[in-house]
Amino acid sequence: MLAWLGVSAIWQRRSFWTSENLIASAFYGDAAIGRGFASSTLSGTALYVLVYSLLGGLFAAVFRSQERQVRVLLLSLVFSMGWYYLSFHVMYRSVLPLVYLLHTERPMVLGHLVYGTFLARFQNYAGGGHIEIHATAEE
Q1: Which residues of the chain have pLDDT under 50?
Q2: Could you give the CA distance from residue 35 to residue 17 in angstroms, rounded to a whole number?
Q3: Is residue 9 within 8 Å of 16, Cβ to Cβ?
Q4: For helices 105-119 and 39-62, what crossing angle results, to 10°?
Q5: Where do the DSSP E strands lie in the chain?
Q6: 52 and 67 in contact (C-beta within 8 Å)?
Q7: What pLDDT score was predicted for residue 125?
Q8: Residue 128: what pLDDT?
Q9: Which pLDDT value is given to residue 101?
Q10: Distance between CA atoms of residues 126 and 106, nearest Å
Q11: CB atoms within 10 A of CB 90
Q12: Left, alpha or beta for 36 (phi > 0: left; psi -120 to 50: alpha)?
């Protein structure tokens, strides 16, 4: 998702790091909004990775028993778009107004669809849901 947002920002003649700098305004205010990579960009990237990893974990925990891949894909797309509208159109409007005002909607929507598509693949990486411990003879 972040790679797509960076590429789309370049197409719009903006900095590759625009979305990360925007979300970094949660920590640095309008000082984070600048062209290019800065130290505040790391905070924005970390915040994106943290939030979307937690969302992915929540989704995987709730829908781990779903066996039909098409259903999981549809659920993940609805989940990602629901999060987009909740965060960018409800929460950020009051909490992070710069993000709400300055984000570009179409690339962000497509980015969330990309996120939802990859989120649907969580079962490929989840393993069997159990941990196996193997002891060796040297122990």
Answers
A1: 129-133
A2: 8
A3: yes
A4: 50
A5: none
A6: no
A7: 74
A8: 54
A9: 87
A10: 31
A11: 11
A12: left
Q: Can you tell me the distance from the alpha carbon of 135 to that of 115, in angstroms, rounded to the nearest whole number?
A: 39
The three-state secondary structure class of 114 is helix
Q: What is the DSSP letter of 29?
A: G
Q: Two tokens at 12?
A: 């719009």
Question: C-alpha distances in angstroms, 67 versus 73, 86, 120, 124?
Answer: 11, 27, 11, 12
**Which residues, 6+ apart, have CB-to-CB distance to 63 below 8 Å?**
72, 75, 76
pLDDT at 66 (0 to 100): 84
The token duo for 107 is 């690339």
Per-residue DSSP letters for 83-103?
HHHHIIIIIHHHH-HHHHHHS
pLDDT at 29: 87
Query: Would you say 4 and 111 are in contact if contact means Cβ atoms under 8 Å apart?
Result: yes
CA distances in angstroms from 17 to 76, 77, 133, listed in the order given: 26, 25, 43
